[in-house]
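Run log, item B.
One chain of 130 residues. Sequence copied directly from the ordering sheet:
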Amino acid sequence: MGQAVRIARETTEQVFAEWGIVRHHPAVDPALLILSELVTNSVRHAALLSPDITVIYAAGQDTFAFAVHDRHPYQPPLLSAVTGTGCGGLGTIMELTLGLGGTAVVRGDADGMGKSIWITLPLRTPPHPA
């Protein structure tokens, strides 16, 4: 599990650098923690059915998005993590994502045998309250 998380984090750091997202941007460290939790969850819960995990990246002018995909059919209830009935890593993922003004969504594969959890984070710095 540790190797998968390390590789995912290092790759994401490279993507940030290549796309000009500076290391000290306030969304970078939380994004890396969110990614680590998602990869850990996939390895821990989906490895028997899905030995391969894919990380997908997308970015816009003010947004960075990434997804962790596996071929396990279970789709975790993200709302439960927000309302307090979820547990562990998913709760951390949702707390960090929503705290940054981001979104999280589970998208099932067309055949119902896998899913991607997409995280979208704003890259703009919110204005300071007056």
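Observations after the first pass:
- Residues 1 and 69 are 15 Å apart (CA to CA).
- Strands lie at 54-59, 63-70, 103-108, 115-122.
Flagged for discussion on Thursday.
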